[in-house]
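Every protein is a chain of amino acids, and every chain bends into a shape of its own. Below is the pair of lines this work produces for a single protein:
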Amino acid sequence: MSSRLQTVLAIVNTAAIAGVGLTLAGHQRASDEALEELRAQVRHASEGTDAKRAAAETAMRLWAANAARPPTAPHARPGAPEAAPSGAAAAAEDPGEDVPPAPPIRPPPASFEQSRTRVFNAFAAEPVDGDWSARASRTLDDAFRAHLPGTSRVKSLECRATLCRVELVHRAQADHGAFLMNGLRTWPGSVFIANEAQEGDDYVVTLLASKEGTNPPL
């Protein structure tokens, strides 16, 4: 038997007695080469004694088991502080922190009577803008002349800084509906119908027209 094989078998016998297997190779290519070398040693050992052949086979099995075992992560050192939890984990552990406040309770929308009172009060409190009030009065007067039914008339018309208050008198409610469809298309602002009432034979409508770019304080 060659001196090389004797040396290898002596190392294998020593490892079997001590109970220490071969360590995992760091690279796959080196591992494959080591496995092929062990297989060759087993084949050569088959020509020797049974004890030597069994020791070589045991060494190869230990190597294969270590090669197939995934490396384990190093354990944390005793006494090492644990990693701080992430922001999401901290929020889950302490639900009392950073909880968004409840949305404020919104008041209910104003009723029609409340809106009408606000608009009337705003008109009464407004000063008169001479330039705008004159232009607004002409625009409304032209619309009334062009679209009011022959049986309807303008009872009052007054413009101030951003609002115009108008009272129209119709013979029937249907006359007012037809006028609204066409009569105020030339007005650039919004129109708020504040009141409709039957007064004897007349159907009286009160409306407030607001300046372009503004809205009545509803």
In short: Residues 14-28, 59-71, 88-92 have pLDDT under 50 and may be disordered. The chain has seven helices and four strands. The helical segments are 3-18, 28-45, 50-68, 87-93, 112-125, 130-147, 173-182. Residues 90 and 96 are 11 Å apart (CA to CA).
